[in-house]
Structures are given as structure tokens and as C-alpha cells.
Amino acid sequence: MEQNPLPEQPAETQPDRGSIWLGFGLFWVVAIVGGVVWWLLTMGLSIAWLYLPAGITSWLSSGLAIVALLVPLAFAAWMAVRGRTRTALGVVLGYALAIALPLLAISICIGLVGGMGNIGR
Fold it and tell me: What does the H/E/C string look like for 57-99?
């Protein structure tokens, strides 16, 4: 029976940097939950406008909307600091898609409406 005099050393493993798809999914979860929370707080402010000056409720609602938009970016920064750079990249890609899709839809609508002037000529 032959014995190995040296114990096997574990191979060096790369640190877990996360998954792009996990970050992409986490972005949408954070964005949807943030949107629901923003909506609920805004609805609460719409009731509070009866008791508060209108300017204050408008500022609070706008501020809450900005916070709801910045939470996913703060989440991506937190993941990047923790060393989960691929997950952070997925969050940023999700944010980019959330900006790009409405812009694409608007440009398609503008193109369709602009092309209607040539119909029937």
C-alpha cells in the first residue's frame, strides 16, 4: 500500500464575485419593492395634503421618488464594496435596461406617429 507523503493542498480558488443574472434579478426585486413603497408613501401623502401645505407634500413625494431611483444604485455600490463585482454589474445592467426600454418605446412611438404624415400619399 503506497502512501502519499505530502497531503494534497487545495487548489487556489477565485473569490466568489457573484452572478450577473443574480444582480439583474435583484435589481428588479429592489426596484419593484421600492416602487411599491414609494407608491404607498405617496398615497399616504395624498391623504396628508388635507392637513399639510401643498408644497410640502409635493417636495416629499418628489424626494421619495428620487430615493426610490437611487436605492438600486446604492445596492450596486454596496455589492461592489463587498467584492461581489459581477452581481453589482448585473444591478447596473438592470438599471440601464430600465432606462433604455422606455426610451426605446418612446422613440418607436415618435417614429410611428411621424411616419403617419406620409400615409396615403
Answer: HHHHHHHHHHHHHHHHHHHHHHHHHCCCHHHHHHHHHHHHHHH
The CA distances from residue 108 to 55, 80, 101, 115, 120, in Å, are 36, 35, 11, 11, 21
Q: Is residue 41 within 8 Å of 108, Cβ to Cβ?
A: no
Q: Which pLDDT score is estimated for 41?
A: 84
pLDDT of residue 99 exceeding 70: yes
pTM of the full structure: 0.71
State the average pLDDT over residues 76-90. 92
